[in-house]
Amino acid sequence: MSTGTANETTTRADRTLTGKTWVAFGPAGAVGSIHSTEGGYTFKLIADADFRGEYPTLEVAKSALHASLLPGAEWPEFREH
After folding, report:
1. Does residue 37 form part of some domain?
2. CB–CB of 27/33 below 8 Å?
3. Could you report the per-residue pLDDT of 19-50, keeping only the tens digit for each?
4. Quick check: helix, strand or coil at residue 77?
5. What is the pTM (predicted TM-score) of this model?
6. Residue 51, domain extent
7. For 9-73, what is the HEC assignment?
8. Does residue 48 lie within any of the structural domains?
9. Alpha carbon distance 58, 56 (integer Å)
């Protein structure tokens, strides 16, 4: 997860993170995070070793993160950091 400012750029695998991060919180705490990239958005769950695919919009990335949670999981609260 990037911990820098909005102007910081970090390269992870084949994606370049551009600094904006949204943390997804479920009833038991943080479940994952979404990061802006040069081409859209990517995410990873807390247990993931690497980022998942790249998505064109923040809303699509939020839906993909939610779909990756256990069946029946509530929609997480997303907080920009």
Report:
1. yes
2. no
3. 899 999 999 999 999 999 999 999 999 999 99
4. strand
5. 0.80
6. 10-80
7. CEEECCEEEEEEEEEEEECCEEEEEEEEECCEEEEEECCCCCCCCEECCHHHHHHHHHHCCCCCC
8. yes
9. 7
